[in-house]
């Protein structure tokens, strides 16, 4: 991507968790479960676009939360991590270890002024930050929408509908859905699931064509991260790109910020990189980012037979702007012009890890590969404390 008051507790704003402080109460566990279920079912039935689907809601619905003025937000959390989803603006706005700062760059003030569904373009792009998906690659925008920038209103402005539930294994799920009309004519789904005790959020994503259109679509996922110091990208020795990566815009990254000690990983120090945009074509489909002792790894898995990807074949991309203080890690699915009823799908995982900031580039790349299962750990890795 290129750029030209909360009602949660103080702990969510400053330290991450709105449920970090609890107090004993006189109600039994069974009674509390029954009360929560009844309240959740009532709240879900009242949400736009959900009332007609209440018959299909599981027995343990997940009640919406009130976050930054959004009364229809959903908070997925376990004892280790938490993620907050805002259907009205189509964003994940919170991603952190419990009690730790938000790893996403998220404009809380802007979000708090956008609690009602927007009905028409505002004239400028609302850069909420967070994590989101665009279903059409940017190179297609000039031919089918107003231009190369800002993002088309149809792709970024309308509100999504959402419902959530607790599964039998105590994992939590939220389903985001949106239908977009002409000229793209698609239905998009993002199904988020957080296990009961793990640090990986799984997102099952789908685009289906609902009426005729000539516009190719892709699942272009973007996570806007604050204060990233370095990124790692999967690269291949047989890449179609020189040195395994492709410069998509702006000046090429300076050689001194790039590290290729291992042939299968490119590490870039982005703290003082200026403005860069690069992509890779590795079918391993992952990209990682580190801020201090925290790391995010994102990996997209789609059709194994897919061959056509946006931006000359890119499957992962990074946009970083050290002047603005944020970095965007991006994954892209195959790009196809769907017939009516056809769909493309992928599964995206966002996993949070603690990795010591003092590791050099080689050790950092090795640790990422270990966490992804690409190589076995040689020795116990240093853990940040």
Briefly characterize the structure.
The protein is mostly beta strands. The protein has helices spanning 10-14, 29-46, 108-112, 141-144, 153-156, 310-313, 361-371, and strands at residues 65-67, 70-77, 81-86, 91-97, 130-134, 161-166, 172-180, 186-194, 200-209, 220-226, 230-234, 246-249, 258-259, 265-269, 275-280, 286-291, 294-301, 316-321, 326-332, 343-354.
Topology at a glance:
Layout (H helix, E strand, L loop, with lengths): L9 H5 L14 H18 L18 E3 L2 E8 L3 E6 L4 E7 L10 H5 L17 E5 L6 H4 L8 H4 L4 E6 L5 E9 L5 E9 L5 E10 L10 E7 L3 E5 L11 E4 L8 E2 L5 E5 L5 E6 L5 E6 L2 E8 L8 H4 L2 E6 L4 E7 L10 E12 L6 H11 L14
Antiparallel strand pairs: 1-2, 2-3, 3-4, 5-10, 6-7, 7-8, 8-9, 9-20, 10-19, 11-14, 11-16, 12-15, 13-14, 15-18, 16-17, 17-20, 18-19
């Amino acid at each position: 991507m290129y750029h030209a008051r909360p009602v949660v507790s103080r702990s969510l704003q400053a330290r991450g968790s709105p449920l970090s402080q609890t107090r004993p109460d006189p109600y039994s566990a069974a009674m509390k479960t029954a009360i929560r279920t009844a309240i959740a079912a009532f709240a879900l039935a009242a949400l736009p676009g959900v009332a007609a689907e209440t018959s299909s809601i599981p027995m343990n619905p997940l009640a919406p939360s009130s976050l930054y003025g959004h009364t229809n937000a959903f908070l997925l959390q376990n004892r280790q991590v938490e993620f907050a989803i805002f259907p009205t603006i189509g964003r994940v706005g919170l991603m952190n270890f419990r009690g730790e700062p938000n790893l996403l760059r998220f404009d809380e003030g802007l979000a708090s002024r956008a609690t009602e569904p927007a009905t028409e373009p505002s004239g400028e792009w609302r850069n909420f930050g967070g994590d989101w998906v665009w279903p059409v690659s940017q190179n297609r925008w000039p031919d089918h929408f107003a231009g190369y920038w800002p993002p088309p209103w149809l792709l970024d402005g309308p509100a999504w509908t959402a419902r959530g539930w607790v599964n039998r294994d105590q994992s939590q799920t939220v389903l985001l859905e949106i239908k977009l009309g002409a000229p793209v004519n698609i239905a998009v789904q993002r199904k988020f699931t957080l296990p009961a005790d793990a640090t990986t959020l799984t997102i099952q994503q789908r685009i289906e064509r609902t009426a005729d259109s000539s516009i190719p679509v892709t699942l272009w996922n973007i996570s806007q991260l604050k204060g990233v110091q370095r990124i790692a990208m999967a690269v291949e020795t047989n890449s179609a790109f020189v040195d395994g990566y492709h410069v998509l815009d702006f000046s090429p990254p300076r050689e001194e910020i790039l590290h290729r000690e291992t042939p299968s990983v490119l590490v870039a120090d982005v703290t003082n990189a200026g403005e860069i945009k690069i992509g890779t074509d590795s079918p391993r489909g992952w990209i990682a980012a580190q801020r201090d002792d925290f790391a995010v790894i994102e990996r997209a898995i789609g059709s194994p037979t897919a061959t056509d990807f946006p931006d000359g074949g890119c499957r992962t991309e990074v946009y970083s702007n050290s002047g603005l203080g944020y970095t965007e890690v991006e994954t892209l699915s195959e790009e196809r012009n769907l017939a009516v009823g056809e769909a493309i799908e992928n599964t995206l995982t966002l996993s949070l890890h603690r990795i010591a900031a003092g590791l050099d580039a080689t050790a950092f790349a090795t640790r990422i590969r270990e966490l992804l299962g690409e190589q076995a750990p040689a020795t116990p890795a240093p853990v940040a404390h």
